Batch of 2 targets.
Target 1
Amino acid sequence: MASAAAYSPLATTFSPQMRCFAARGFHALTNMSSAARNSANPAGTIPAFFMNQQTRLLNVHEFQGADIMSQHGVRVPLGIACKTPEEVKAASDKLQVDGEVVLKSQILAGGRGLGHFPATGLQGGVHICTAEEAPKLAEKMFGQQLVTKQSGPEGKPVHWLYIAKKMALAREMYFAILLDRASAGPMIIGCSEGGTSIEDLAEKFPEKIIKMPININTGPTDAQLDEVVSRLGVKSHLDDAKKQIAGLYETFIKCDCTMVEVNPLAEDTEGMLIAADAKLNFDDNASFRQKDIFALKDDAQADPREVAAAKYDLNYIGLDGSIGCMVNGAGLAMATMDIVSLHGGSPANFLDVGGSASEGQIVEAFKILTADHRVKALLVNIFGGIMKCDVIAAGIVAAAKQVNVTVPLVVRLEGTNVDAGKEILKSSGINIIAADDLDDAAKKAVLAAA
């Protein structure tokens, strides 16, 4: 899929950083903590529909993010990623301080510390424990689903554990860099108080939140770095603190991040800043130049339907409704979902097969849609432009026969060779519910799914 920047006037006018910004619009807003999100959208100017949408961007595990930040001069905790209890034992023996280590489950969801493992009954995905206890705890974590407030009820599988050196932290702060639509560039958001209560703090004391727009072409000035460090409450090693903030910004820009969120950004007992825990998101449109980073993608953490769709160049996002939608074109797909909702239905997915889908892609799309047990009806909405209606109709018939569709199938065709396409569907012998227009199709799909 081509980068959004390739179709933008910005592509020939502005710097590479500004061109990326055009394509990185809502990404950070949907993945940051609520405190940062509210600061970036204080008046609710961005519609809730977009704020709640899943987006196509890369998340990496904590240990991977720490490695990336360290490459840009950011100070991170010493840790070792492990995949077996034996590796946990070796890492714990190496990193223990006063006989203790920090054992962290690695999943792509927040709230790990307060999560739980339903199968083993273990409470908490993050533990401070003795080096001797670590392998035993690891056995209760590896291969299990960790359920947190952000993972969904099914949880996320734990295949990695991060053994970190226990740190003595004197103070915790909050720091993030994200994209701000109002200033058309990056924005630094920070607070002199951080940790797990940042959302409550931002709600009760919004005046404590630092919000600083940054010129994307020049980066933060020395005066801005001074102000950030001062407002974070840093009292010593000021030049080093400025270097740490500059390193986080460098990570954001050079790695095509949509968000860098450090919570907590901490001071150790010597007053040195350390990115104790961080969440990094990366713009999918930059995958062509961030190959090493995108090679870190952990498909085990993703919706398996989305992983399967990506293999066949299908744009799929799973939702929680009962009407499976297959459409050509992202705009038409969004409109289809809207009309379904307008008539009292609930879309089960966003699925754009593109303008030149092959029969094989259509077959795979049907397999993905019908694999969702919540789908009670299928709605195919095709506007034939580049994709001719007779070609898509033949693909629908072949796919329906091969996949053995057992739920009602509603099809609306319009555009090039539409009459030929409708004739193919009519003579196929398959029980297809034909629709005259989008409104008619949505009504019939909602009725069929009821």
Target 2
Amino acid sequence: MDKDQQQEAQNKKQKTDEKEEFFQPLGQQAQEGVSYTGATDAEGHSVQEIESLCMKCGKNGVTRLLLTSIPYFREVVIMSFECSHCGFKNSEMQPASKIQEKGCKYMLKIENVKDFNRQVVKSETCTCEFKELELEIPAQKGQIITIEGLLSGMIEDLSAEQEARKTQQPEIYEKIEEFVAKVKSVLLGSHFPLTFILDDPSGNSWVEYIPGEPQHKWSQVEYTRTPQQNVQLGLVSADEVAQHELAASNTKDRNPTSSGFISDQTDIENFENEVQTFQATCPSCYASCSTNMKMVNIPHFKEVIIMATVCDRCGYKSNEVKTGGAIPDKGKKITLKVVNAEDLARDILKSETCGLTVPELHLDLTPGTLGGRFTTIEGLLRQVQEELHDRVFTETSDSMDEATKTRWETFLQRITDAADGKIKFTITMEDPLASSYIQNVYAPDPDPNMTTEEFVRSKEVDQDLGLTDMHV
């Protein structure tokens, strides 16, 4: 082994040592009092015990820590505390990963008793809502729990002070008893369907997804946080938000200033063939960042704008595809039969408002999933496969049963086979704003494998898109 190889091996060992030290901060802070129980999870992570202060009696209890991974999700720290003196117990979950670039919102339709067993990862910034029950659970401590566990815990909390309310506030006592009885009957299956909504601005919560279930049953949408949510998460200070809002209000009524580009019809600046870069404000930390923008003219469709933003301060990244022109009166539904490998090379534009289904693969993408994408059909399938594998499915998860793992592996393998051209399938895109597109390789002649039809939007869809609030 020469000197360069020896140096490279030494550097790798040093990086490995640094990584191992990085994953032991909790033990290093209380090195004298750390012991190992001998218990491990399926991946070999050890359970640590640390002597710590009981906040109820003031004596010392034991805190147990496990750094592990949650199936379909990401790494977390599971903590439990127990005091042998007063009997106080507490458990909590905290995400081990960073705050995500965007917040997340999950929706689950509970249609049978089995759905109450869906696993939920709930961070300390997450709120939960049961629409039909008019029940909202505010942000509390982090938990790994089921939907049934959420409702049972809520019943337990409400019932804790009922004896005192019975004499002091009899009217409130009766209302709570009535509500608790209703929730208990729901858990027994008396009322379906229920709509469960989980909203977490940190993006570190999750609701279990089962492959192949109908499109209406489960959905996940990412969103840009509001300034108030960024303050709540500690990403920015309230003063920074106030300064940003003040600066925005001062420039609100100003006329647009010159960008420095020549606006006459010459070849000095060709906007259509160049990537334009302009300064913007990061929506996460409000620092100055750069946004790249490129105009792309899609033949037989319309012009679209591709934008990419990167913030050097907080690492925020976003990619967007926006279509130009007026909002059409009707939506558009495009259906394409993919019969050979050449069809996989067709360009596809999927807007943020577009839903996509592939019946042969049992694949349903609700509007908002993956955001706006301009790629090929093969590229879109591979992006879907990567997203599902990396963010939803974890092959080495310690609590995944064999049936679930087999179902996931089959589902993901069929998407891969479709992207490789081994499976014929039908792709359907339904966009209420008619801002999505699949390339017609026979243009301007009709495509024998593709059908396009217009449809009238419902009032509910117009309201969700904010079109009913627009007045011209």
